[in-house]
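Internal ticket #5521
Category: modeling
Description: The requester needs a full-assembly model to guide mutagenesis choices. All entity lines are attached below as received. Residue total reported by intake: 1688.
Assigned to: D.W.
Attached entities:
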Amino acid sequence: MFRKRPPPEEERRVRANDREYNEKFQYANNCIMTSKYNIITFLPVNLFEQFQEVANTYFLFLLILQLIPQISSLSWFTTIVPLVLVLSITAVKDATDDYFRHKSDNQVNNRQSQVLINGILQKEKWMNVRVGDIIKLENNQFVAADLLLLSSSEPHGLCYIETAELDGETNMKVRQSLSVTSELGDPNHLAQFDGEVVCEPPNNKLDRFCGTLYWRECKYGLSNQNMLLRGCVLRNTESCYGLVIFAGPDTKLMQNSGRTKFKRTSIDRLMNTLVLWIFGFLVCMGVILAIGNAVWEREVGFLFQSYLPWDPPVDNFLFSAFLSFWSYVIILNTVVPISLYVSVEVIRLCHSYFINWDRRMFCNRSSTPAEARSTTLNEELGQVEYIFSDKTGTLTQNIMTFNKCSINGRAYGEVMNIPGAQHKRAQPLDFSTWNPLADRDFCFYDASLLEAVKVGEPAVHEFFRVLSLCHTVMSEEKSEGELVYKAQSPDEGALVTAARNFGFVFRSRTPSTITTQELGKAVTYTLLAILDFNNIRKRMSVIVRTPEGRIRLYCKGADTVLFERLHSCSHDVMNITSDHLNEYAGDGLRTLALAYRDLSEEQWAEWAERYRGADKAIDCREDRLAAAYEEIEQDLMLLGATAIEDKLQEGVAETIAILSLANIKIWVLTGDKQETAVNIGYSCKMLTDDTTEVFIVNGHTVQSVREDLRRARERMMESARTRDGGKEVETQWGGACSLGNGFSSGDAANCVPDQEKCAQPQAPPTSVLESISGEFALVISGHSLAHALEADMEQEFLETACACRAVICCRVTPLQKAMVVELVKRHKNAVTLAIGDGANDVSMIKTAHIGVGISGQEGIQAVLASDYSFSQFRFLQRLLLVHGRWSYLRMCRFLCYFFYKNFAFTMVHFWFGFFCGFSAQTVYDQYFITLYNIVYTSLPVLAMGIFDQDVPEQRSLEYPKLYEPGQLNLLFNKREFFICIAQGIYTSVVLFFIPYGVLSQATQSNGVPLADYQTFAVTTATALVIVVSVQISLDTGYWTAINHFFVWGSVGAYFTILFTMHSSVLFNIFPKQFHFLGSSQNTLAQPVVWLTIALATVICIAPVLAFRFLKLDLKPQLSDTVRYTQLVQQKKWKPGGRAGRRVGGIGGSQGGALGRLGRGGSRRSGYAFAHQEGFGELITSGKNMRLSSLALATFASRHSASWIDTLRKKKHNPHSTPPTGDSSPAPSLGPPLSTSSSLTGPPEITQEEAGQTNSDHTPSKSLSEPSDVQPNVANVAQMETGGCSLTAQETALGWKAAGARISGASSPGPPTIAEEAANGE
Amino acid sequence: MASGYNAKEEDGHRAGAAGPGESASRSRKPDNTAFKQQRLPAWQPILTAGTVLPAFFIIGLIFIPIGIGLYVTSNNIREFEIDYTGTDPSSPCYNCSQTYSWNSTTLCTCTLTFSLNQPFEGNVFMYYGLSNFYQNHRRYVKSRDDSQLNGDLSSLKSPSKECEPYHTNEKPIAPCGAIANSMFNDTLELFYIDPNETRTPIPLMKKGIAWWTDKHVKFRNPGGSNANLTAVFQGTTKPVNWRKPVYELDSDPENNGFINEDLIVWMRTAALPTFRKLYRIIQKKNNMTPTLPRGNYTLEVTYNYPVHSFEGRKRMILSTISWMGGKNPFLGIAYMTVGSICFVLGVVLLFIHHKYGNRNNSSDIPS
């Protein structure tokens, strides 16, 4: 901060191995400093920062005012003590934070790296690495700075890195050194290397680097492909050498870690508004009292001067009034106590700790506890109305399992669907006995497939051979038999693993060979060509020469694509397979078709020639290659199809059901294609068979999108009209709903629709559409969304979408995710929550009010950007319904009480003003004013703010409707605030006028009048403390030992301090400071005083009590009823608190299987070829391999920063259209990354690739085509899974029964939900 | 607030990115304690009809008797009040009030007669009352030096700045400040007029009218208890409005100087602009006769204290006392009123609860 910054760099010049030369430029060294202070600068800098807060400055201003004797109405310590306390608490917090930052800085700075100095490798600390040094990295080491890769131990100067820490992507990326430098293998040569790099100045673009290497009179262009960035980890590479280009703060990692945007909660904003209002109120009070002062000084004070002359500078009543105004501002400032903000912070911090400590949000598998990364948003968790969820990795585990397959017309893997087979299912096949190379984690249940392999069915063998050969997976064999596959997509990994377990083990590959072990026998295939995957082709092939010398093409791909290219003799198989595929699709599985083709030598030779021609082409290489591929991939013989399950996370369906019962709308925003997304929508119960209609918006033009939206709305209105006709049906539903709160786990999903129907009419309709309570769902694709999000249509889109119960946006870019969130945030005035796990979710996580990161498979980028993180989607229900709800409740109660107590305290001065000549005389002792907020009343309300619970956690999960008050902002809003204020003012009136009425005439029992100032002060203060303590007792709903301790302790502390302050001991030491000598002894010994206090307390509390009782009795909130019911239950069932826990267990762990059973199976799946271009080109490009810039551009573009940039750009330039426009390929207009990879397809694809692992390009294909197939499939499904409808009925019955039990109010705690059972131990 | 980057995070020590070195030995599972899991045993009171309604009835039943008791006690107290300000031309003190100036050397006295219709029994307390006198004004309240009054010698010679403008009058003022300067200095004397017209002076006790702590701790003469006050106060001057210096307030050394009880009483400022202060105590006699029998009395006022300028009023009050102090009808009435209201409220709530309350009959949970 204080370091003199050199002028901004224009360009960077780095000469290798030449420290003197590089020193001239004063580049930053590799020492990073994330800490803000050191020991000397801490105090001034920290104070400076703290006084930038308005509140602190305000109190400083008051303090200065108090130094003016004519104004000073309080002694200096009444302001300075709280201020110092607040400042020091914050300072301590900042200091600890900074200490840990220092520690981690030190740890990082002191890491060892090997630096080449004078030709010798020396160990150096990271902080001592300079720009221009050459350092050596070894496998699994972190890259110490931004390096230019010079050489590597791997062939062709390749090295592999993992960028998870940088952009959150776990898959490996390839970097390659320039060929000239890659030859400098050993340290001696490298020490001689004196190339000079001229490159761009430090920036934060993770995917771009542009520079030139000058060496030996030659120029070599450098790109990001040659760079190893700090934060990456070296993988699969023994060692490599790099030249430090950017170090320390100049590295892209550090340049990217800007300050995160500070999020504020709505309560925060409300609080700030209210504080402003209170300031206004304060000024009003000040003006009123100042006017009073003016009048008084003119009418009375002027005459009273014989006894009390005016102060020398005061020569008229107006000036006196002016001074009096400021005096009153000082006195009345306690309506906005400085401790408010600190207390709020403390409460939030504690709530965050509760989240961190929650064992039920702890994932045993990954040993990850939930983490509240932001401590400022807790209460907003109790107000969420919209959840935007990513799909992959969030709803799903992003673990693909090979689930079923169809080989040569025969389906395998169906065991699961045999009713009553649940016990058998527990034993997966044991592969390890006959196949030592089998992957132990692989599970498959159908023994017949294994039999088929053992028997040696040729089709089955060929099937697995395709899987073991046709892929771009890299293998790594650490020790014999311990294979690790590195796959570009989890789908591919799953397929190869399946082949491996069934005896076709892919072991290793070279650029020209693939070695497998087929049923224990090593076989080496010569790899002739890889016809790599891309989004348009939707298939990939390999051409291999078998050991026997035959040439064969193996192909796998989307069935639609593949079926067109089949040989006519495969048609029978194709028909059967097609049926199977429909079935799989209905189960939400991702499917691929496999085929092969035998090639003759001539065919191969001829094609290879054309292929080489295309490959070498300079222009349109891509198209010509595709054409060449197309030529050879003909007349295929169908082998079968695979079905991969994209496993849902545990408890997703239940969580979604519960959350939608809580009136939270869930939108899924995914980069996946439409069909996949819809499937997942079904499997996680967002869409159900009860869904009346699913609107698909898939238009490519503005008109068609508008038309789609309009039609959707029309349909909704129509169906609303028809339903209005059938009122009876409606009421019937309503009746069912009223019982519906006590559902338990499994049936949860079934009652979603009904609940929704009931809930809708209650909510105040903001538009006609909003009031429609239909079972509609909207599916909109990315390219339509681009139009829908434009300014003139967004309102339309929002209205339509919000009227739907489920919204699925598929094929959206990260930027669009953020835009959708932004749209809802802007127009709906609702709290939004975004949840995701990947780098592609970061923008959405940052945009939403609350961002939740799933710490799972995809690295930590999302987690780093998030406010809360945990490892399972299902923890969301606990975060919102338990923690969020409680936090909101506590915060609201805290604020209500806090404003109340301060008004009650302060306004007494206002009334007293009318009796003391508006002279700003305080009612209380100065010490009381100092300590009231920080000692006498702070802890009980803090305890309430931290520990209060209205209903136990199980209940808030059981009755999701309990969440509603938060969404509707019922517990603390302006109305509640005014009620609190009114109550506070009422209390202050009572607290002033009751002692006034009593004491003005009363005398002590020894005849001494009680009406002296000190007695009055002690009486009022004591009454105040007792009244606010009784009030907090009334407000506290959950009396833990801590609450008892604080409440009683505060009252005790008050009396202790009171007597101490008024003791003769203190007076004898400081006679000037303790004027109140003996007041408490004299006053509190008087029965009249106690009678006064009792009277005041009753007058203050009785109306509150009566009012609350009436509210509870006549209009009980759901939480009150739940509480009451619980009380009744506790009385009836003393011991059996946690019965019925087991009942909930059906859902949870087996959710996946059940979920699939329960589905109607009537939907045609998408042919999810969740794939992307892989290492294919890299593998085949052979010895003089020049890494294809195109292939690598794809990797390069898969960084997150670029679309963050795009988002930023977007914000700066709100008029620019969304980049995912129509098909006009205008890379220069698009986001930066599209320039690098726009050749692979239309811009939107490349955008998606930036974050989505599973992306595919669907041409505009509406779902109407699949829906034609629907009736047939539905019939089939009904026949096959006959129990389905029955099951639904049963669950519905059970659910009703559960409701009935609750209405009896005697059941021992209705069954708790699945989550509890699954996770509780 | 913190910067988004934390060097530790680069390390892969974060959740989900468990590095190779991180073993499962150190479990990150949170402790299963009642505190951390928010399961602390707790009492969860609810406002039910069973608790609220009895509370109202009990409050009513307690407050009404207390109120009646207070009211009766208060009514049994004898109190007599006479205004001797002399604003009315017919008042005996009219002349004194009109001609008064601080500098006059002649004492103005006036005599008021009054009669008590009922005898006063037990100790009778004599108060002076002032109205429209702002002893609670901020500038007035702080215009004193407690250190000086506590006998601190240095403060005696250099009083606190708070005492301005009654800080020094060439010499330091003792006692300094506006409060002391404006000390009430009327002399009130009471005579009983026998039916046969003889005036019997009534003995007035001038000690025992201040708080014990004030008399013995807060107020002390400088230089210890038995020093020569005249010598001790050498070098100081009397407050501007005073006629006598502070060491001549009384002849009794136990009641002179700063520990003069009239001064102490005056220095205990009143909370409200209308107040009374204890002036003298009339001790009850040993025999059965009342302290002040019914009959006629005269009050002789040495009128020193001007209140005319700010429309103040001066009163003399005689009062007997009970266990709860002097006459105070407000408290009794307030108790009775509040008690009754609580009781009625209880009845109303009971009615509402029975008629409309939905708690007892249906404890089901509406959606």
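Resolution: model delivered.
Comment from assignee: Residues 1-25, 360-367 of chain B have pLDDT under 50 and may be disordered.
Ticket closed.
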